[in-house]
Amino acid sequence: MGIIKVENIRVFANHGCLKEETAIGSDYRVDIEVKADLKKSSKTDELDDTVDYVFLNKVVREEMAKPSKLLETVAQRILDRVFKDSSIITKATVAVSKINPPIGGDVEMVTIKMNQKRKK
Prior knowledge:
The chain is 32% helix and 36% strand.
């Protein structure tokens, strides 16, 4: 087994329960970590035998572009996509952070973190 991480993916998106949040948008940070068997790719040196981090970044950007009220919804969409589109991923963890959230205080960010294992 091995781990591939793509950290601090910075995205501007329109998520939130408040009308202003979806109209104005805000900055987000997404971190994704996947577990997969990397033995084959370590021997073949072929991109097709691993989880391409360009693919992970693309999934995050595409799913973040779809407005949602809750960060949990966005995180679940990202998890669903990585399992659907990559058969070698066995476990994935995604953290979605809203930078400078409108919650009436000096808060740098709020984060939700979800993980999922491949269903057998």
